[in-house]
Design goal:
The complex is a heterodimer. Chain A is 32% helix and 29% strand. Chain A is α/β, with parallel strands linked by helices. Chain A contains eight helices and 13 strands. Chain A has two domains: 3-96 and 202-228, D-Maltodextrin-Binding Protein, domain 2, CATH 3.40.190; 98-200, 3-Layer(aba) Sandwich (D-Maltodextrin-Binding Protein, domain 2). In chain A, strands 7, 8, 9, 10, 11 and 12 form a six-stranded mixed sheet that branches. Among the domains of chain B are: 1-120 and 351-373, Bira Bifunctional Protein, Domain 2 (BirA Bifunctional Protein, domain 2); 161-243, no CATH class. Chain B has a nine-stranded mixed sheet with strand order 1-5-6-12-11-10-7-9-8, sandwiched between helices. In chain B, strands 2-4-3 form a three-stranded antiparallel sheet. The chains are: A alpha/beta, B alpha+beta.
């Protein structure tokens, strides 16, 4: 038996993931042609590589179709209900950093914190007859954050791309999105609320709790953890 | 012992018997569409229920929602063409997407009783409570009552500005933020540094200049709205704190909890010190009398001042729940008064209303232990 390790199939996230494993004595490499999503693991027994879209890795972990997976912690928290019951964080990998933040128009000189956003939501709803709209694709994370902080009179509107433009296009009053430098936000005349971001994301190695963990899988897992210098325990 | 999750046929039979009970008390049986227009409901509910609603796009009717409860459609039906007073009963499935793993159902049966009556509010409250209590009596449940009206009266009576009272009133349903606001308004916690820096900027420059400097005016919120809030923030910063004794009394009220007979003397004592709540306390006593007259003496009831604060945003007066107190079961029945909701849905018209729902699926699980219910 082999355990299946899912890693991002392209781009910097894939390269950084390969580097991270290489530094720890495990070589991941693509096999076949440049365009073929096949891969191999060298330097350790019993581990097979699956190259997947980073966005699909949370779902594959949740379903237990892969035993281990590398993806952004934001995607796992957003994609899996009660994520920590379904997967275990084995290692924060130190790259792919990005913050999920809430941003409002820079011209809102009366808004700096979530407290202000909440008060403005009440004012806005009274003045405009509808709730203050926050455009995002991170519905679960943003809702939980706003609930934890007791923000009311808002509604989330779905935005799968070009989210920073929704305010100028009058389809939202504020946005919640991933940012690493804030440059796109600033270019769209938005400012980030002060205080802790909704989530600080980075590439993370996860273990699927409900993948089939047979005895030989556990042996292979323990071997990999030892090689990576991580504490093991299924 | 809890029975295993009963099958749907068993739950439907149980529901039919509960419905017949409400019907025998003079309620008119009504139906509500399973597919409801989403817009009205989305605006009424908080984001929590919105997030848990099944919303679908209908090519002809626009956004539709699987009904998350019956109260709103029953109120709409009554406001459109109901005679008064009116008693309605209904049964059917409601749908709530679950956000967490676990046994909570995303589709379950409700049987409800709603009373629209401009007469004696205490009697109407007691009637709805009794209609539910008598049919659940064999289960030996804990009955908890509360009163959102009492909390609203206490907030309305605080000696502070109207905007501060409005901010607290709005967050009665979010206890964490309510506490944070109260601490800020009473000077127990200082304004955060971000707010202090903002106020310094307002001192140094006019808001129009600050807005111009910050960048182009984008989005639907106007410059007038921004400057109005700047003025409100500056005015608020000059306000004296809410006196500490008032905050302490409010905290005592919010923490009141226990058998009614034990809590009532405390509540009378508080009414002496918070004059604003005296009418609400008198209303509560009238309700207790009405309940006793219907065979539900105070000894059988528990009072929790904060009951209903986290999940029942459209209730604004009497609230109640019947709890099994075993396992992870949801409340067997819940209800309350929702006068304000009828005003929102009635487009100007309003009628005092009180109602409650039983979950027959939970009743059926308890039946094994409780015997004949």
């Amino acid at each position: 038996m082999t355990i299946r390790l899912g890693v991002p199939s392209k781009g910097r996230l894939m390269e950084k993931t390969f580097d991270w494993f290489t530094e720890r004595g495990v070589t991941l490499r693509r096999t076949g042609s440049e365009r073929e999503y096949a891969g191999a693991v060298e330097g350790i027994e019993g581990v097979a590589l699956r190259l997947l879209s980073a966005g699909e890795i949370p779902r594959e972990l949740g379903a237990g179709r892969i035993h281990l997976g590398v993806t952004g912690s934001d995607l796992v928290r957003e994609g899996l209900a009660d994520w920590d019951a379904q997967v275990e964080e084995l290692a924060a990998m130190g790259f792919g950093h990005a913050d999920l933040v809430i941003a409002v128009p820079a011209c809102w000189v009366d808004v700096e914190t979530l407290d202000d956003l909440d008060a403005v939501a009440a004012q806005f709803r009274a003045a405009h007859g509808h709730r203050l709209r926050i455009a995002t694709k991170y519905h679960r994370l943003v809702r939980e954050h706003l609930r934890a902080h007791g923000v009311a009179d808002y509604q989330l509107v779905d935005s799968q791309g070009a989210t920073e433009g929704t305010v100028a296009n009058l389809t939202a009053e504020a946005i919640a999105d991933i940012t690493s430098t804030g440059a796109t936000l600033a270019a769209n005349h938005l400012k980030v609320l002060q205080g802790e971001p909704v989530h600080r994301s980075q590439a993370t190695l996860f273990r699927a709790r409900n993948a089939g963990w047979g005895a030989s899988d556990q042996t292979a897992f323990a071997g990999l953890m030892a090689r990576l210098g991580l504490a093991a325990g299924v | 012992m809890l029975a295993a999750a009963p099958d749907k046929a068993t739950i439907r039979l149980k529901a039919a018997r509960l419905l017949a009970h409400f019907q025998s008390r003079g309620a008119q049986v009504v139906e509500a569409d399973i597919l409801q227009p989403a817009e009205t409901l989305l605006d009424l509910y908080g984001e929590d229920i919105r997030a848990r609603a099944y919303v679908t796009a209908d090519p002809l009717r626009g956004e539709m929602m699987l009904r998350p409860d019956f109260t709103v459609p029953v109120v709409q039906m009554h406001m459109a063409h109901g005679a008064e007073p009116a008693r309605y009963a209904y049964m059917g499935e409601v749908f709530r997407r679950q956000e967490h793993l676990g046994p909570r159902a995303s589709e379950y049966m409700q049987v409800g009783y709603e009373l629209f009556d401009r007469g004696d509010a205490a009697a109407a409250d007691a009637e709805v409570f009794a209609a539910i209590a008598e049919v659940l009596a064999p289960l030996g449940l804990r009955a908890v009552i509360g009163d959102i009206g009492l909390l609203r009266a206490a907030v309305a009576g605080l000696s502070t500005t109207a905007p501060r009272r409005a901010a607290l009133m709005r967050h009665i349903w979010r206890p964490g933020r309510f506490r944070a606001l109260l601490e800020r308004f009473s000077g127990q916690s200082p304004a955060c540094e971000a707010r202090a820096a903002m106020l310094r900027r307002f001192e140094a420059a006019r808001p129009e200049a600050l807005i111009a400097e910050a960048g182009p005016l984008i989005g639907k919120r106007s410059a007038e709205e921004i400057t109005a809030r700047v003025a409100a923030l500056r005015a608020d910063a000059q306000e004296p704190p809410i006196p500490a004794d008032e905050v302490a009394l409010l905290a005592r009220l919010l923490d009141l909890k226990g058998p009614v007979a034990v809590v009532l003397p405390d509540l009378r004592d508080l009414a002496g010190q918070i004059p604003a709540i005296a009418p609400a306390v008198a209303g509560l006593e009238a309700r207790l009398d009405a309940l006793a007259a219907l065979g539900h003496p105070a000894e059988a009831l528990e009072f929790e001042a904060s009951y209903g604060r986290t999940q029942m945003e459209y209730y604004d007066g009497f609230v109640f729940g019947f709890l099994a107190g075993q396992g992870d079961l949801p409340p067997v029945a819940t209800g309350g008064r929702y006068d304000a909701l009828t005003a929102v849905l009635g487009a100007g018209a309003a009628i005092p209303a009180v109602g409650g729902v039983i979950r027959p699926g939970v009743v059926a699980r308890l039946k094994a232990e409780g015997g004949a219910a």
